[in-house]
Amino acid sequence: MTETGKHLLEVKDLKQYFPVAGNRHLAVRAVDGVSFFIDRGETFGLVGESGCGKSTVARAIIRLNEPTDGQVILDGQDITHLKERELVTARKKMQMVFQDPYSSLNGRMSIREILEEPLIAQNRKLSKEERALKAREALLRVGLSADYLNRYPHEFSGGQRQRICIARALIVNPEFLICDEAISALDVSIQAQVVNMLGDFQKEYGLTYLFIAHDLSMVRYVSHRVGVMYLGHLMEVCESEEIYRNPLHPYTQGLLASIPVANPREARANETPAIEGEVPSPLSPPDGCAFHTRCPHAKEICRSVCPQMKDMGDGHFVCCHLYA
């Protein structure tokens, strides 16, 4: 699902299959035909259960994985099949903040070396003094003292490490930032600080975000639009408030119903059955609609024909036979 016009990022029919060792006819269909766009200055939230393919989409966009099929278009340039040498220019425009702040920093490198590494990769003409100044500015930008430059990752808390990861991503002045569950490993109070900081950066620098998370409440707070994924497929896309007011896909409705309610009386009054059954294996996904094995509204056509994304108006798209 894309729209005509100028977007910073367009993903068209993206597929990411991982072959199974010892069986050339078998593959894990981690991402199976995902399409969406992100406008400049926008935050697009991508949500879904663990294992649905959210992080694989992110890694394919930034080309940490080679996509099996489809297109990734960044600022009008198709980067899907660029060679590593040609990707240098594209990667100046996009960076990524990973989920685990403990494993995404090299413990043998000082914070100064960690922050200067992308500068060396992107611009070898910078002098040692210029790199040091940029590293200092990047650390101050995320609310940490420049005195930390000569320290090592093990000396910091999880929240501080994630701020360092954000500083590393921003130091090359990208236009597009992928946050792959960048706050899920942090305490709730620290999550709020990091999210507010990202929001401030978006206002100040005009950044565009792909925000991947499983916390629907947080995605509602930070995103302009939301995409819901299930078993490698995009099921619904709309504005963040609209997905709470008017969820159309049965899977989206089930996800929203699973959000805990603090008030016990309200929880009992609005009790909705949770999504039943187990997620099928991406090694052998079901025919037809990927969700039909768990859908309370499944029809015969759902078991044999894969639905197409339908425009329901006002930027609301849904992939479901119920709206044929």
Explain what this protein looks like in three dimensions.
Helix content is 31%, strand content 22%. It is of the alpha/beta class and 324 residues long. The strands form two sheets. It has an eight-stranded mixed beta sheet with strand order 6-7-8-3-9-10-12-11, with helices on both faces. Strands 2-1-4-5 form a four-stranded antiparallel beta sheet. Helix 4 crosses helix 5. The protein is globular. The protein starts with 8 loop residues before the first strand and ends in a 6-residue tail after the last strand.
Secondary structure layout plus pairing:
Elements: E1 9-20, E2 23-38, E3 43-47, H1 54-61, E4 69-74, E5 77-78, H2 87-93, E6 94-97, H3 111-122, H4 128-141, H5 158-170, E7 176-180, H6 188-205, E8 208-212, H7 216-222, E9 225-230, E10 233-239, H8 240-245, H9 250-257, H10 264-269, E11 310-311, E12 317-318
Helix pairs in contact: 3-4, 3-5, 4-5
**Shape from CA axes?**
globular
Structural class designation: alpha/beta
> How far from one another are the termini?
16 Å
Supply Rg: 21 Å
What value does the average pLDDT take? 90
Q: Could you tell me the number of beta strands?
A: 12
From the structure provided, what is the oligomeric state, counting identical versus distinct chains?
A: single chain
Helix content: 25-40%
Q: Bin the strand percentage.
A: 15-25%
pLDDT < 50 runs, ≥5 residues: none
How do the SSEs run, as a string of H and E?
EEEHEEHEHHHEHEHEEHHHEE
